[in-house]
Amino acid sequence: xxxxxxxxxxxxxxxxxxxxxxxxxxxxxxxxxxxxxxxxxxxxxxxxxxxxxxxxxxxxxxxxxxxxxxxxxxxxxxxxxxxxxxxxxxxxxxxxx
Length: 97
What we know:
Largest sheet: none
CATH topology: Flagellar transcriptional activator fold
Number of helices: 5
Radius of gyration: 13 Å
CATH class: Mainly Alpha
Shape: globular
Distance between the termini: 45 Å
Strand content: under 5%
Low-confidence stretches: 92-97
């Protein structure tokens, strides 16, 4: 059986996405406050399934999602093959600003 090796960044993204998803389902206001999310971000993460989260983490590579990026919703809604390039482009634009 093939086991995927996740980087530290991927493990952090996975852990945070799963924690936030569960927190949103239990106590949305507290989770938003704790993780600095707006209502739309919390709604979108709360609607993700475990397989969707795993696929997103795998496709993002070492692009960090947290603290919550300004383009978080765009990355969550992007087709999976485009997630990594979009994250890289937006990270570069953020550094140049």
